[in-house]
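does this look right to u?? cytidine-5'-triphosphate version
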Amino acid sequence: MTSLSKKNIVLGVTGGIAAYKAVELASKLKKMGAAVHVIMTKGATSFVTERLFQEITGQAVVSDMWAKTEFHVEHIALAKLADLMIIAPATANILAKVSAGIADDMLTTTILATKAPIFYVPAMNTNMYENPVTQNNLDQLRKYGAHIIEPDSGYLACGVEGKGRFPTTDRIIAEISSFLKKGQTLTGRKILVTAGGTREALDPVRFLGNRSTGRMGYAIAAEAARRGADVYLVSGISELPCPDNVRRVFVESALQMREAVLREFDDADVVIKAAAVADYRPKMVAQQKIKKQEGELCLTLVRNPDILKELGERKKQQILMGFAAETENVENYAQDKMHRKNLDFIVANDVSAKDAGFGTDSNRIILFERTGGRTKYPLMEKEALAKCILDKIEMALEKRGNV
Ligand code: CTP
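got this back:
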């Protein structure tokens, strides 16, 4: 396994003389296990052919945004698919366009649409490279979070000596690999996450449920997988797509969730229980649809097992995190739950707030640690909170001397 194995790399090739060196880069990336998707600008096609990249990578190559290919590749698809983008060579022209947000072809559109990290490999004549306009554009791109792989100095195709040479493909690959490895802070860890709401059947067509969408737990699972963990997601009801590199099982009721969680619990390093589990279920599940009658209908509910409490009693090496959705007395209730259920962390959120909690994109949480820590976060997107939560988990793993 290399850090590039199974990674989707989108390689943008622009119209510079060094375009032919991108062929070698594509070939090496593929040999290291990456799936390489090439996008060429029109200029690039004057130097190398689409066909060549297609043969080398075994993937469709796109240059015309409007061409219908048999592969149905379109800019948003590649932008989404990319784990990383490399623009090599990057001409002064493409740097100027993307730093200004111009999106007038397949490559610039994909760059604007992607959330993946982007590496630029500028290669051009020394004067063009050193021109303050180009340098400003590079600074601007750095500010937007892009990575710039500095060109080499030496003899350039245009006949002058100076900075602007396309670096060796080995240096490009080394920089990308070290970047990809850096993020893999949870490699070798098994993380079990529960998410979504449970449903407790009343009859074949009705159930008792809750408003959980699963977004918080799914965001945690996605981030943990991005950091290299083996992630098991036990999902209650949720319409969200399965995050990349996550093993998901669907369950419906609290009893099914308990069974699925216990199956994966023993060798887990971390368990994060973000699911909204029903505390009660109907005592009787009618075999046939319940028909309406005169007067009131009384439902008798029985207690569901408290899965988290049971995990707290069984836990050995596992770091256990629970969630507390409260509508009042948030801090006290949450801390009490942490101790009662023998947790290492509890994430408390006030679900009575309109902008946070169930069914919203954002959340406002307080994270309590068993060891006494308390961190209050401002209103944040659930994806950003997932990062903060996993940073805390990583710290706890480190403290245990396990990392
Ligand atoms: N939980 C669980 N099993 C249950 C109920 C809850 O594992 N049967 C977990 C949830 O996944 C969450 C945490 O317990 O991580 C807190 O759930 P919550 O319903 O807010 O708390 P309760 O323990 O049910 O306490 P209370 O009803 O008093 O609020």
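The chain is about 35% helix and 25% strand. idk if thats expected tbh
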